[in-house]
């Protein structure tokens, strides 16, 4: 071979090196570590580039609590801080303000400062707009759509502004949410939650910050093992509102970053169009799709292809906000909100990758295993992670499915949610109470038996669930007829059994039927009026309705009259 | 190579190895699967590594073979390659890069690996041939074919000198 044969095409090589290369997926390193069984303390984490500014900001707020040494600080005061912050997060309805973010540029060693205004509401909607612009992003949580204007990451800040729209965004972790979730919702929220639920000794002191009475809590953190981000975080919290005013991080005593929240306004009415963004006419819009679709809970099972588990029990104040499914991975994601708090329960088909989907590169978190002792997951082994560098979460495998429970909840709450999981649509759609239902009934037939049914309609304002076989009686002038009840199997009459059966989810206005067949009445003609009594399963109450019916034919005088009752079924 | 040197080796080469695996396999999950297998295999083979080759050559060879195994295991690669080829990017340079990515994805895997190792990562021909497990002449011919195809997509890149 000659020297010429060993030619290297530099321009081509440079172009090839510019091609995008994905980072490792979540959990890659933890899985690798598990396989190799290396001690976690060893530093051999893989090198990843610094994430975007938002991620850096987010990292600022992931904390490990330890006591604050020094005079003037107090654990009792820290408890007050926790109480105040918890109340703020759980009850806030809206927030707006200005973010000032200063960060060390590790390449130039200069300090870069950026400004943005933001707004967020209790539904999870978000607006973040750079000052002076032009970058802006708005997120509609209920629709799972993010729209924005921004610069191309490839072309730099001086390039043209492009419009983008991301649809099908997941409701929350462990699936990727909107761009700014990293900062405002997921990470900062979870960091504050970590502060609240850590149970470790924390100390706080009072101070004035920009003219406002405040508390400061100093926390020592484990740096990211891929790129050391910080080892000390000072969190300044507004005493009036309980919301953070500043998060300042240092590494080995040197400044790394600081996030300030200014012009803070909590729980004020936001303009109706706060989370709406219209694109300039003619603007080309880059569109992408995260694959999640908002659905009704009752439709979820059919979309994911299995009967999902849902919780009966939730921490106080949480309400179901979003139900979404993703075809890829057969994911069901249920998002519950409480003020700015979010708790997400997901289920998915386990892929070949078996790591913790919450894991993030460079952040080894502490977890422990436990046995679920109740509910649909009874007997399964769970993996619980309460670590301030992660969203608090619990993972449980169910056959080939993985259930995740993660968000703003403490250890006890996560376990209680896991214990309450059932393969039925309760809780979010809690069992229908008799007071929510209206019932009608009718029986008819010309030959032999009388057939018909009981129909219940959800007259309430929320979805609820009926399941199983109610106890049905026919009353004559208010007294039950002597009927022998027969538990009949559901007759689908050739129709497909709906996914999710035997639960029947009733959105407001929906109906469910109980098929009834009355046979062999050889007694005296019942005294009018006839009525029907329906006792709901699970102690959910009793319903009654007038019954338009005659009596069935007497086929065998020595045999009892029978009433065959099928379980609740969706309306045919 | 001890464990610390191995960790440093991984740190130093993880990005180009990700690039190689991603370009050969076409999606991140498969890239991670292959790299996880390869890193594990390499780590466990440490006690048997006697320095017959440079450590990076040894590591790249393990990764390359893991990628080939992954391709054999999952015959969906044709579909994935097509997806890569249709990948959209933003504008300008990005569009040019997208065209290059598509052209790269259209190459046979051995040509892809050759051009990535030599032109992108600067491997000497001998080391690249060792990684790919081929003779020098085979490597050169793969390189030549790969470059010709890629240059058609990369009009800004001048013709190379090896064709004289």
Could you explain how this protein is built, in words?
- The complex is a heterodimer of chains A (572) and B (164).
- Chain A is mostly beta strands and 572 residues long.
- Chain A is 13% helix and 38% strand.
- Chain A is built from 7 helices and 33 strands.
- Chain A has a 12-stranded mixed β-sheet, covered by helices on one side. Chain A has a 9-stranded mixed β-sheet with strand order 27-26-31-32-23-24-30-33-28, with no helix packed on it.
- In chain A, a hairpin with a 4-residue loop joins strand 2 and strand 3 (126-131).
- Mean pLDDT of chain A is 78; it is low at 38-72.
- In chain B, helix 1 (3-25) packs across helix 6 (109-120) and helix 5 crosses helix 8 (136-153).
- The radius of gyration of chain B is 16 Å and the shape is globular.
- Chain B is mainly alpha-helical.
- Chain B has helices at 3-25, 28-45, 55-73, 77-85, 93-106, 109-120, 125-132, 136-153.
- Chains A and B meet through helix 1 and helix 2 of A and helix 1, helix 2, helix 5, helix 6 and helix 8 of B.
